[in-house]
Amino acid sequence: MRTGIIVFGHGSSVPSANDAVRAVAADAARGGHWALYETAFLEADPRLDKAVAAVVKAGADEVLVLPYFLTLGIHLQRDLPKLVEELVNVHGVPIRVAAPLDGHPGLSRILIERGQEMAR
Fold first, then answer.
1. N or C: which end of the chain has fewer CB within 10 A?
2. Residue 61's domain is classified under what CATH number?
3. How far apart are CA 99 and CA 63, in angstroms?
4. How many structural domains are present in the chain?
């Protein structure tokens, strides 16, 4: 099974914010050896539908969406499930959604590091 991975962020009207998400996704793709990946946004381009279409066209027969969101807020509870349901119907491939970043032990380590940087 070939899995297409999509790093899915909120999106911003500030281009550099979206570029930062793309850079993290590219770094993760290199580190994770992801053959098929895209970055997508809820409120910026490319949207999730374009990213799913791209990985399916490239040969993915399943899609994994990795939310680049800190918490399970309204967008992940309400908006993303609707989008995923529509895209499953359009593309006929399973789409799974990972948990948001909240609760991952790496977040605490990041806060500690940032605090230590500022304390210097």
1. C
2. 3.40.50.1400
3. 14
4. 1
Distance CA 78, CA 86 (A): 13
Q: Residue 19's pLDDT is what?
A: 98
Looking at residues 33-44, what average pLDDT do you find? 97
Model confidence over 63-106: pLDDT tens digits? 999 999 999 899 999 999 999 999 999 999 999 999 999 989 99
Q: How far is CA 91 from CA 44, 47, 54, 80, 119, in A?
A: 22, 15, 11, 16, 51
The domain of 106 spans 3-119
Banded pLDDT at 29 (limits 50, 70, 90): very high
Q: Above 90 in pLDDT, residue 3?
A: yes
What residues are paired with 67 via a beta bridge?
8
Strands across the sheet containing 3-9: 37-41, 3-9, 62-67, 95-97
At CA 65, angle to CA 64 and CA 69, rounded to 5? 150
